[in-house]
Design a protein that fits this description.
single chain; two-stranded antiparallel ribbon; two-stranded antiparallel sheet; 4 strands; globular
Length: 294
């Protein structure tokens, strides 16, 4: 019975962490699917959201206001980055866009270090306590994260499937030229995509702070890399793939942490899974092969 409870707890914790990775991965996969670029500055938007929560918790102390402002700041930042750094590079080589994304990432990290210093800052968003069901004890922050992640993913799926903008995103991801001929503004679609991805990054920053209430200028680096790994495992450009990859990575991470002999190799194990899946299925689990037009 005790072993069964430990398995359930590990599974719930894994799904909770995986939900965070999935939310970040959705930002990567949507931008890649629509704009065909890898926004490696996406992880640092998580950091900006975390610092925004930190600042407004000091100023106001109301977590709901801090969270709302963090989402707003991240959305504005994501749109500005797209307009200033990426839009002028439409039609440029993928290498030029990649180098620009890396440059934006380091710029955000450096600005955060200049403003807040390199020492980690403690951020207490809310004390949620724990829930005990018989022998099962679960942190409420874990349940809140998992439920919120599921709600966000369902809402995003419905948005993409049933709204006019969502269908425009799907059309743009398939064929930009044909989409423009149909009178759809591709620039607007890409801007909305960056805004949605940035809002999800802000939420991911919040849930990370609930689990580990400490932030520094590299706060979003490793989560961003792992979320990108999740997106590739699931199939870069696929929204269901990003969700699947995130949950899979989260479960593997929690299982590894609970096995002392391999706990220190958790990151290596996750990246090894990426390599194995790409060797077996280069497009990812739910990825689709696409013919390139010549």
């Amino acid at each position: 019975m005790v072993i069964f409870m430990e398995i359930i707890t590990t599974l719930i914790n894994g799904l909770s962490i995986g939900g965070i990775y999935a939310m970040i991965a959705l930002g990567y996969t949507m931008v890649y699917g629509i704009a065909k670029m890898l926004n490696f500055a996406h992880g640092d938007i998580i950091m900006v959201g975390g610092y925004t929560i930190y600042v407004f918790m000091l100023v106001n102390g109301n977590p709901f206001i801090a969270i709302a402002l963090a989402i707003l700041v991240c959305v504005v930042l994501g749109v500005v980055i797209e307009k200033v750094a990426y839009k002028p590079l439409r039609g440029a080589s993928p290498l030029a866009v990649l180098i620009t994304a890396i440059g934006v990432s380091y710029l955000l990290q450096s600005l955060a270090q200049i403003i807040f210093g390199s020492a980690p800052k403690m951020v207490t968003v809310a004390e949620l306590g724990s829930l005990k069901l018989g022998d099962l004890k679960i942190q409420l922050s874990t349940l809140v994260t998992l439920i919120s992640a599921i709600i966000v993913m369902i809402a995003l799926t419905l948005f993409v499937k049933y709204t006019k903008m969502g269908r425009a995103m799907l059309a743009t991801s398939e064929d930009k030229s044909a989409t423009q001929l149909m009178g759809i503004s591709v620039n607007l679609v890409i801007t909305v995509t960056f805004a949605i991805g940035s809002a999800l990054a802000a939420l991911a920053g919040l849930f990370y702070l609930l689990k580990a209430p400490s932030i520094s200028n590299t706060f979003g680096s490793m989560p961003g890399i792992k979320a990108f790994t999740a997106a590739v495992i699931g199939g870069i450009g696929s929204i269901p793939g990003a969700m699947l990859g995130g949950f899979l990575l989260g479960i593997v991470e929690c299982i590894s942490y609970n096995i002392p002999s391999i706990a220190s190799y958790t990151d290596a194990i996750e990246f090894l899974i990426l390599i194995v899946i790409l060797l077996v299925r280069p497009t990812g689990i739910l990825g689709k092969r696409r013919r390139e037009k010549v």
